[in-house]
Specification:
Number of helices: 3
Number of strands: 6
Shape: elongated
CATH class of one domain: Alpha Beta
Strand content: 15-25%
Order of helices and strands: EEHHEEHEE
CATH topology of one domain: Murine Class I Major Histocompatibility Complex, H2-DB, Chain A, domain 1
Structural class: alpha+beta
CATH architecture of one domain: 2-Layer Sandwich
Radius of gyration: 42 Å
Distance between the termini: 111 Å
Strand order of the largest sheet: 4-3-5-6
Amino acid sequence: MAFTRTSGTARPGLQCAPRDITPRLAVQTLRARSACSASRADASLDCCARRDPKFVGNPAQISPENLMAQSDIPADGSLPTAVPNTTSSFSLQCYYREKLENVRQQLPEAARQLKEAGVVSVEIYYDGCGDSGQIESIHYFDAAYKAIDPTGRVTITDDALMDLFYDLLEARHAGWENNDGAFGQFVWNLVVDTLKHSHSERYTECDTTEHEGL
């Protein structure tokens, strides 16, 4: 007669074959892995659900500064110096050259019309500061240096002529209206064919005095 153990007390009973727990453990392991995978999937879906709607369907945006590896940072901890955008600078230079070339092509025709209307000289004044500037006035003078109005005798308008001088000013002194600004004048003598340009830039100067104690 064989005995089985139950709670430490021996009692007669039928002999049972050893139980194989491997399948059950395998099932439990499989269930645990499935639960883990489901948890990860739910977390991933929850993460997607929390994304801003305007970014749905698009890859996550990566900030360029996060792409720098630790080895890219200099030993002294300083950040790399920004490289100038040479393409932008070149484009800007081309832009100003085109503006200047347009002035050179258009001014001779304007001078011809103005001389035929009796204009001997033209004076143009401009002023600007605080990121805003404009041509304040344009005056035409005859041989006696008396102001005359060529309107109706020329096809070029004041606005068209001022646009040419705006382009010339911008090509020579880009950003002249910024910060404290600048002012100046053009004196255009049509008889001797000269163009004098006087340009003055403003700036703020500080005189600092320091005191310590009484």
